[in-house]
Amino acid sequence: MIEAIPLQVEPSAITDAVNNTWILTVSFLIFFMHAGFAMLEAGQVRAKNVANQLTKNLLTWSVGVTVFFFIGAGISGLVGGDPFTSSLPYLADDASGYIGWLYGAVFAMTAATIVSGAVAGRARLRAYITYTFLLAAIIYPVVTGITWAGAYIQIGEAGFHDFAGGMIVHGVGGIAGLTAAWILGPRMDRYNADGSANVIPGHSLTFAVLGTLMLAFGWYGFNVGTAAAMYETEAGLMAYNGAVLGRVAMGTTIAMAAGAMGAGLAAWYRTGKVDTLYVANGLLAGLVGITAIPDTTHYLGALAIGGLAGAQLPIVFSFVEKRMKIDDVCAVFPVHGSAGVLGTLAFPFVHYDLGVPLAEAALTQFVGVVVIAAWTVGATAVVWYALKALGQARVTPEHEREGLDISEHGVDTYPEFGDEEGVVADGGRVRTDGGVCCTTRGDDK
């Protein structure tokens, strides 16, 4: 006979262990989204710019997460009303605090990496890294400081609601990308003299779709990971809110599916064709649309928001391309910007049980969106205009023609399809007979 023995462990110790394990697991899942961004963006640029796009994704994480570790997390806490040092675990000598820092860092780096897709094909690597530094140190932390950390945006009984970063993360990334792309100007040959737009297709639809599905997988960590947390009740028991967890998982999935269908239907209605890239990006737009509100949205609301977020994608992309004349290479604004705004504003209208006056909730969401957008546009414009004034924002026309893989990195992503004589990048040496002496890597003598 086996006798039951009471567990001699405090419930709080178990909940802390489970929660920390959960947070680390979903942080790793969100980190995996960078692989998805790398593939999605690499697929949507020309073959001569693939290595540049991959390098930007690698350095976004490497530079950004380091900056967020030493500066950004502290700025977020400071804006939110806490001392600068209290939000920096390395200064507070709090090793367990690194778990929370990592969780915040993967969200911050998602916002940062979105921008790279908008400025693809013509931004200098040094300019992009400079902006990444400032976004991770100041721009994004200020947004989280006034929202998640400080909860300053409130009207009446209603506080600004953004569950997992539909506006705070994706909206910021999409709006920042649009602003940077506008200041940089379009890629060469993107527009004709009469203002009409030319299509510059990406080099690999396969990569783009693979990246889409990798991102969708990681998104479960983004949304569902935010939902699950065990806690200790007043009676000393362990509990968690399974209803919220289930609603978030459902809403994320339904909105994702509806986004793909909405974009496909809108593209078909406009052109008579179901564009594969629109379907892929529509799936992501559906995910962005639900990210601010999956914890409170009725299943019909998730279906509607996902469908609308997908359907607006071809319309907004066409408006940005043809009316605004902005060359948003990877459609980051319609995928992350306008879809994030849509979902955030929809919060009070698709809530299963709002509990506060609808007008107050709607106005609070609107004010929150305006404040975040205004700060993002203003801060981003200052950085990129400064870089442009210094002549450091954009590569030279010659380097843009030959491709950023060669001019910025000294590599050819697909060398077997290139010029047999080879090419030379900045810093390389050329023989007097015109041939290539060596590359910047020094391994081709």
TrEMBL record:
Q: Which UniProt keywords apply?
A: Ammonia transport, Membrane, Transmembrane, Transmembrane helix, Transport
Q: Which domain of life is it from?
A: Archaea
Bilayer disposition of the protein: Multi-pass membrane protein
Q: Which residues cross the membrane?
A: 20-37, 58-79, 99-121, 128-151, 163-184, 205-222, 242-269, 276-293, 299-317, 329-350, 362-387
Start and end residues of each Ammonium transporter AmtB-like domain: 22-414
Q: Which GO terms describe its molecular function?
A: ammonium channel activity
Q: Which Pfam families match?
A: Ammonium_transp
Which compartments does it reside in? Answer: Membrane
* Chief localization: membrane
Q: Name one GO cellular component term.
A: membrane
**InterPro entries assigned to the protein according to its UniProt record, in alphabetical order:** Ammonium/urea_transptr (IPR029020), Ammonium_transpt_CS (IPR018047), NH4_transpt_AmtB-like_dom (IPR024041)
Give the GO terms filed under biological process for this record: ammonium homeostasis
As for family, the record states: Belongs to the ammonia transporter channel (TC 1.A.11.2) family.
Q: What does this protein do?
A: Involved in the uptake of ammonium/ammonia (NH(4)(+)/NH(3)). Transport is electrogenic.
What name appears for this protein in its UniProt entry?
A: Ammonia permease
Species, as recorded: Halapricum desulfuricans
The gene designation is amtB
